[in-house]
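re: the backbone from monday

yeah here it is again, tokenized this time
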């Protein structure tokens, strides 16, 4: 009669039932690994519109569970991509409209950006940098194709075509649009995208709306049947089962690495360059002296910006005045620095948003309602310090002129120096 030790020795020599159990757990990791890596196409003919979507997700424990959850999604809400695991907001800077981001790829873009560029909120007494916020202004390039990185090259498997359609379910821009991506007013990062024609419409992408393919349900059912056959087959194995455990374990490590590791934006088909004039703005926790009052002579502002309004309306002033107009659009709180890759340091969150508004009109206004909720129009009660009230009164009063001038400047830059892809 077999003893307990004999049974344990036999189980550890050739684990049997445990394989069936392992295949029924960790399905969510498999789904996230596919979501991270799907999208790269291999073209098998000259037609660039036809291609085979490849995702390097290795066989591992959890595939059987994923097969059934995938079938449920295919016949239920018809969405194969997971919802975003990085709660965030996308703000249209033209009208201040805020959308809750539903896109997996946008959420991961923000999460990976936060990991790469750490904000040190510790005080200087504690050895930190006393930073309160970091704002990165970026120029998305026209849509092309995802970049193959190290994570992508770890394995190969062919997947459903609907995955690619869901991952990039947005449209491409037909005109310029400025949007901001952030978590909320308790977090420390803002990504500002100055979108141009041909780049992703991030506002559309954030809604995560896609049209289900009619063949998705049938393919998902077939995959579920095949995984069931694998479960039945594994249950009958009595020898050399450690080989299958080893294969599944190695695959699980690859799945975890693919699902969780940060990647560069290009790997998710976000090809971006840094805004050359003000790529990064960092707010620091510093003391400053407030103004005595918040009075601003708004009736003088249109007159002060008359030459800029004339230039932006395609009736340019004399050439000698043009550079003077541009310099007045962006009044810097510190001395100008010639290096275009500079980091602009400001005092606190409000100071950083002020610098953002100087360089990207309406972006600072739109984000002020996120970090200091007040609505799109000027709200005196929502802003505490007089020095900030003065700026935001001017900003609200002159936003249309400054926005037109900035749009014209970008158009002239694109004409003079075509964008490189």
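seq for it, each position gets an aa:
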């Amino acid at each position: 009669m077999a003893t307990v030790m004999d049974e344990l020795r036999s189980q550890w020599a050739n684990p049997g039932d445990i394989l069936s159990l392992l295949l029924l757990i960790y399905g969510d990791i498999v789904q996230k690994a596919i979501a991270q890596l799907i999208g790269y196409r291999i073209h098998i003919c000259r037609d660039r519109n036809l291609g085979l979507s490849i995702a390097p997700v290795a066989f591992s424990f959890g595939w059987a569970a994923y097969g059934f959850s995938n079938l449920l999604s295919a016949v239920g809400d018809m969405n194969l991509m997971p919802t975003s695991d990085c709660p965030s907001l996308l703000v249209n800077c033209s009208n201040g409209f805020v959308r809750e981001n539903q896109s997996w790829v946008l959420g991961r873009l923000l999460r990976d950006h936060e990991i790469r560029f750490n904000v040190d909120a510790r005080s200087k007494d504690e050895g930190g940098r006393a930073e309160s916020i970091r704002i990165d202004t970026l120029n998305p390039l026209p849509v092309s194709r995802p970049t193959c990185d190290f994570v992508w090259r770890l394995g190969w498997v062919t997947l459903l075509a609907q995955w690619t359609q869901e991952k990039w379910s947005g449209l491409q821009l037909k005109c310029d649009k400025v949007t901001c991506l952030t978590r909320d007013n308790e977090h420390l990062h803002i990504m500002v995208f100055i979108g141009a024609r041909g780049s992703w419409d991030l506002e559309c992408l954030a809604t995560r709306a896609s049209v289900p393919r009619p063949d998705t349900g049938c393919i998902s059912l077939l995959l579920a049947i095949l995984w069931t056959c694998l479960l039945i087959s594994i249950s009958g194995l009595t020898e050399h089962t450690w080989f299958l455990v080893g294969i599944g374990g190695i695959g699980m490590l690859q799945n975890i690495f693919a699902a969780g590791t940060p990647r560069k934006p290009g790997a998710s088909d976000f090809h971006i360059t840094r805004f050359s004039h003000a790529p990064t703005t960092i707010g620091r926790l510093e003391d400053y002296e407030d103004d005595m009052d918040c009075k601003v002579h708004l009736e003088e502002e249109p007159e002060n910006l008359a030459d800029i309004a004339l230039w932006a309306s395609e009736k340019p002033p004399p050439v000698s005045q043009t550079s003077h107009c541009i310099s007045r659009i962006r009044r810097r709180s510190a001395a100008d620095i010639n290096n275009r890759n500079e980091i602009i340091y400001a005092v606190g969150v409000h100071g950083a948003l002020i610098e953002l508004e100087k360089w990207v009109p309406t972006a600072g206004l739109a984000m002020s309602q996120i970090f200091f909720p007040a609505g799109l129009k000027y709200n005196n009660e929502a802003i505490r310090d007089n020095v900030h009230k003065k700026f935001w009164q001017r900003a609200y009063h002159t936003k249309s002129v400054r926005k037109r001038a900035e749009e014209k400047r970008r158009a002239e830059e694109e004409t003079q120096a075509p964008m490189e892809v």
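Confidence is low (pLDDT under 50) at residues 316-329, 331-339. The CA atoms of residues 60 and 251 lie 4 Å apart.
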